Amino acid sequence: MDNLFFVLSKLVWGLLSPTSLMVWLLLLVTLLLWLNYIRVAKRLLLLMSLIGFIVMGYPVGDYLMYPLESRFAAPEKLSEPFDGIIMLGGAEQLKLSDSWQKAQVGDGAERILQTAELARLYPDLPIIVSGGSNLVQRQNLDSDGQVFQQLFSQAGIDASRLVIEPQARNTYENFQRLKPLLPKPAGTYVLVTSAFHMPRAVGIAKKQHINVIPYPVDYRSNHANNRYWDFDLPAHLAVLETAWHEWLGLTVYFLTGKTQSWFPQATVKIDKTDE
Questions:
Q1: Out of the domains of life, which is the source (predicted)?
Q2: pLDDT of 47-90, one tens digit each?
């Protein structure tokens, strides 16, 4: 079932991402023109032009992204004791790393930087890292976690502290696969991932009975005073795509029982005796 869920999620995203939807609409307009449905085609073209102009000119994706990123605040100080640091993969670029035989990162590199900083602040704690290839055609990329080892080595973190789980293809599998690797199953762990991704990650952690302290990083949305017309289509589209993907993920994960709630809130420590 996990394989089916993974493949279907990729197919659905290929159909429902904002960019894909615009391409499907363009194909539909082309078909309508060929069939001589001129009036309907003109209306669709007008709609597409208006949406495209607005997305190009103004950061509308921020309105979808900001609620995700503001759901959890990064702790000003980690006062309560915890047993390790969990980092979810996503910053590493496995296909590029494989192509150039050197660890590459993309968006979300703050996950690695913040985890490395926490590792230096708490030198006695293990670092549990989960993330594998999310490519349907290359699911065995970096199956031994060499990219993670290179990146943390470059950040000055000793490899002996790393507990790497390199097979997870999505957020559900992250927690499913890292759970048996936790040094203290009933312990508490700082969770580092992108701010937009934190609600879904916390919801899955709760469902898997893993106690986490959210530590969001890698913010993508602007506050209201920094939203203005600047006609930066690539930047606007990147935020819109990411936010839309995450809201779809929250919805699908909730409907399939992988999270306890649709839009998870602050985590509460779980008492293992209640399981």
A1: Bacteria
A2: 999 999 999 999 999 999 999 999 999 888 887 789 999 999 88
Number of structural domains (the chain) is: 2
> Does any domain span residue 40?
yes
Residue 8: CA count within 13 A, CB half-sphere: 9
pTM: 0.88
Residue 214 lies in a domain: yes
The number of residues making up the chain comes to: 275
> Contact at 8 Å (CB) between 132 and 174?
no
Identify whether residues 51 and 163 lie together within a single domain.
no
Q: Report residue 237 as tokens.
A: 């589209």
Look up the CATH number of the domain holding residue 117: 3.40.50.620
Q: From 175, 181, 176, select the one nearest 197 (Cα to Cα).
A: 175
In the chain, the amino acid numbered 242 is: T
Write the single-letter amino acid at 88.
L
Q: Is the pLDDT of residue 5 over 90?
A: no
Amino acid present at 30: T
The residues near 188 (Cβ < 8 Å, ≥ 6 apart) are 80, 81, 82, 83, 211, 212, 213, 269
What is the residue whose two structure tokens read 């309105």?
A: 63
